[in-house]
Design brief:
The protein has 161 residues and is α/β, with parallel strands linked by helices. It is built from 6 helices and 5 strands.
Length: 161
């Protein structure tokens, strides 16, 4: 697990140093975690520093409801990614099940677009780990572990950046 966190920290650091952005997506509690993690990067986490280029794809209710209504809820993240994602960016998907169709579709699109991917999910339930780099949740307390893992990744990246 520590190796995975270090790898994600390197990916985050490389993404930001190259002038690209980190995007987060998730449903329910993971949507809140997505917002929290993006806020930590844009705001500050532990130390004063310049804002980092990060956003949560979970926050714009007008986009979420319009896309959900017009194209279906399963496309709410992939449609946004299509609009704002660029090669070299990073998409971080948070999912307790690993099977959320809207996250799976966003991860698949990201790969086709040249956007790097990392997923925090539960290993026993994931459909296809070849879609993205995966950090595994090893307990029933996925949201707490994902938040801790992501904070460790971010903090490591900040120290090396």
């Amino acid at each position: 697990m520590a190796g995975d966190i270090e790898q994600v920290a390197r990916i985050c650091t490389d993404t930001l140093k190259a002038g690209n952005k980190i995007m987060f997506c998730g449903n329910g509690g993971a949507a809140a975690d997505s917002q929290h993690l993006a806020a930590e990067l844009v705001g500050r986490y532990k130390l004063n520093r310049p804002a980092m280029n990060a956003l949560a794809l979970t926050v714009d209710t007008s986009i979420l409801t319009a896309v959900g209504n017009d194209y279906g809820y399963e496309t709410v993240f992939s449609r946004q990614l299509e609009g704002v994602g660029r090669p070299g960016d990073l998409l971080v998907g948070l999912s307790t099940s690993g099977n959320s169709r809207n996250i799976v579709l966003a991860m698949e699109l990201a790969r086709r677009m040249g956007v790097r991917t990392v997923a925090f999910d539960r290993p026993r339930r994931r459909r296809d780990e070849r879609r993205c780099g995966v950090l595994h949740c090893r307990s029933f307390r996925c949201h707490e572990q994902h938040s801790g893992d992501a904070h460790c990744s971010g903090a490591s990246g900040l120290r090396t950046g």
